[in-house]
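Look over both lines:
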Amino acid sequence: MKTLATAAEAARHQREWFAGLRRRVAEGEPLAVVNADVPHEIFRAMDIPYVVSQWWASVVAAKQRSGHYLELLRRRGLPDHSEQYNAVTLGSAFDPDPDAGPWGGLPKPSIVVGDASGDVTRKIFDIWGREPGVAFYPLESAAENEVPANWWELVPHRWEEAIGPARLDLLTAELENLVRFLETTTGRRFRESRFREVMALVNEQEEWNRRTRDLIARARPAPVSVADGIPGVMLPQWHRGTEWARDAARRFHEEVRERVDTGQAACPGERARLMWIGRGLWYDMGFYQRFQEEHGAVFVWSMYLAIAADGYIRHGDDPMRALAARFAAFTDQLYTPPWSSEWYVKEARLHGIDGVVHLVSDDPRGGYFTARALESAGFPVIEIEADNVDTRTYDGDRVAERVGRWLEDVVLTRAAPAAGRGPR
């Protein structure tokens, strides 16, 4: 249940936007389906309607429809148990009654763009590209042996130093080629002046998110839980590069600030501050508030606001290279140790975390090292094995019982009194 007006407003805007997108596609405009790690700013600058594959999967999961789309994959002899976050959206392409899907269904795209961050993800988008009338553009996923210390301090301005010229050269060239591909495919023109406007709006939006992250980290008790924080930050993130998204991030900050100033708490009897590591549990968002009344434990952290604060801001005179710097190491920042593990430890200390709940799927992406780094830094960790959009992998009552016991036996016995407790 949303308590923030800005979270409710973002949800309303998302429904209106999607209805408008369906109308635009029905009238003949192109539609792109893109991965979350693809630079959406180019599509924004070219006014090409797009849907993020993982966002659509989250809607499907929230409507308890992921099993249906995974079954459609099975019927075609395709795996239904791997990289479900993207596979669910692919399954929607095979629905014989697409209009029966959530929110009227996902229209058929004419373009799909995905990053090759793993063999499975690449294959999913390859299958998209074999569909009649669908063109696929892949982006490579490069790696670097040198890992910068405290990358989050470097990337806003010193991103060349943090990421390395070779990775930036590769992705910049690929993005320039993507622009040419989109111009040829859609007939739309890319204007650098408009692109610069989009990049500036994104930086403004993420600066507001950074302030909100820091505000929540300092506040005792927590003014909001991630149940509000995730929609409050992520729905505008899917619209980044627009004035609406910039202003939504500002309003989100102002509402959180008001709650801090008036002493409002997500959990008035706060006894422990929790960190959620992993993708959103879209089919059970009530999970994040389940432990507040009985245990006084509130989830104050998720990666969504934190990565918006630390992972997106890029200043520089070359907008295309700055955009490449935003995404060249994005997967590293969230999933590849020591990039990711050091960042999670930093965030846990900043927020005064008492315990960490870690969602681990069949695609853990460095999950072992994340958990070990946090435990070595003194933070208790419990791992939940489930996929965040595949309800078949999740038993809510069993998970809640495990987490409840862990809170009582481990976290609450170690947690300091909430009053006056600051970051570690």
Remarks:
- Residues 5-190 form a domain with the Rossmann fold fold (CATH 3.40.50.11890).
- The first helix runs from residue 5 to 26.
